[in-house]
């Protein structure tokens, strides 16, 4: 794993060739390799300051220049950057890097990291826990209620709002989201969770009463078209035929899940590397619509109802880009499944990885 690069020395002592599993995409891998190179050459500026400017950065894993306002949160946090730089430097010592992506999705990014001087890169994804679509025993009742509600909705009519295991909103932002949903008029399923007192490092909790955090009368006015929940069975929801759009924090697992099920994304990143993922989805791959790509959960930013409403309308519009974007998502979805079949790109890459391990051990 990426966070365990310190174990590479132990593996070498035991005669075990060091390989690293990289759970993010090839784009973030290329981004970090570039940042580490710039840092070691003394050419990396203060990223925390750059994010508030109109500057752009040329990143080899991106075809377009990256506006600095979309720098991922994890690299503008000064306590995290040195750790990431050190880990990335150690990556270069690995015999290979196994990445949770597939060639057809990140063709350009994979080409940029597969160059002389870097370890071989093996894209073997999408690696998804499809069994997580089924709930744990204690979540069975909530799961059944959500799925029964979705069963009663027309195909492709529901926008699903869910922001990962660490995503949450306080009353002020929840009020803006509620206003946007009511004005947009689309059917919705909204996973709304309470922020932890520990901030972004704490696990969100559940609201005991949604009326305490949502505008007065909202639940009554939208009872025929919407449902607000706490915990959400994300995989099962994305796989339901009634879901036509996914407003997401753009965590890499969520990105791969949305692609697998062919659901377009409304990009609203919050922390970690998610701003970079969002930029890639919206600007490079054309698989998403922007809600607010420069949002940072701990930055005190408020996304307005107008911004959210506009993003949801674009996401859910049947005539979206004359149907091209929704069609593209479906095509990439099929590619993600084919990649894992015999002879597919990820299956073949896995075979090359296994052979390389065998050759290096022997």
From TrEMBL:
<dbReference type="Pfam" id="PF00201">
    <property type="entry name" value="UDPGT"/>
</dbReference>
<dbReference type="InterPro" id="IPR002213">
    <property type="entry name" value="UDP_glucos_trans"/>
</dbReference>
<comment type="pathway">
    <text>Pigment biosynthesis; anthocyanin biosynthesis.</text>
</comment>
<dbReference type="GO" id="GO:0047213">
    <property type="term" value="F:anthocyanidin 3-O-glucosyltransferase activity"/>
</dbReference>
<dbReference type="InterPro" id="IPR035595">
    <property type="entry name" value="UDP_glycos_trans_CS"/>
</dbReference>
<keyword id="KW-0808">Transferase</keyword>
<protein>
    <recommendedName>
        <fullName>anthocyanidin 3-O-glucosyltransferase</fullName>
        <ecNumber>2.4.1.115</ecNumber>
    </recommendedName>
</protein>
<keyword id="KW-0328">Glycosyltransferase</keyword>
<dbReference type="InterPro" id="IPR050481">
    <property type="entry name" value="UDP-glycosyltransf_plant"/>
</dbReference>
<comment type="similarity">
    <text>Belongs to the UDP-glycosyltransferase family.</text>
</comment>
